[in-house]
Amino acid sequence: MSDSTPPCPECSSVYAYPMDSLLVCPECGHEWNPDEVEETGLVVKDANGNALQDGDTVIVVKNLPVKGASGPVKAGTKVKNIRLTEGDHNIDCKIDGFGAMALKSEFVKKG
């Protein structure tokens, strides 16, 4: 494995190896042509499958319990100016009455 071998575009494994004109991932089995790979960056989709972007406004689709708060974030709450991040909770935002928090994109829809 050389330092110039890119990670797998499917699972991000760093163990990809060349085979003929393709690269192969031993972890997920994905094969790709490194000359045809497009850098797509972070793609986050809402509950309806719509792509989200930094700065979007979203609406919470179900009541979400918040640790340490007296009540949940109610369904229908509008959240403005979101920031997308990597990880399980892939939306950083500020919600009125709750402050800064992280949400999962599967519990919001584009508003």
Report on the architecture of this protein.
The structure is a single chain. With 111 residues, the chain is mainly β. It is elongated. 0% of the residues lie in helices and 29% in strands. It has strands at residues 17-19, 22-24, 31-32, 44-45, 51-52, 58-60, 78-79, 83-84, 91-95, 99-103, 108-110. A hairpin with a 6-residue loop joins strand 2 and strand 3 (31-32). It is built from no helices and eleven strands. The strands form four sheets. It has a three-stranded antiparallel sheet, with no helix packed on it. It starts with 16 loop residues before the first strand and ends with a strand.
Class from secondary-structure proportions: mainly beta
Low-confidence stretches: none
Which word captures the global form? elongated
Total DSSP E strands: 11
Arithmetic mean of pLDDT: 88
Range of helix content? under 10%
SSE succession: EEEEEEEEEEE
Tally the helices: what do you get? Answer: 0
**Range of strand content:** 25-35%
CA gyration radius, whole angstroms: 19 Å
Through-space gap between termini: 45 Å
Strand order of the largest sheet: 1-2-3
How is the main sheet built?
3 strands, antiparallel
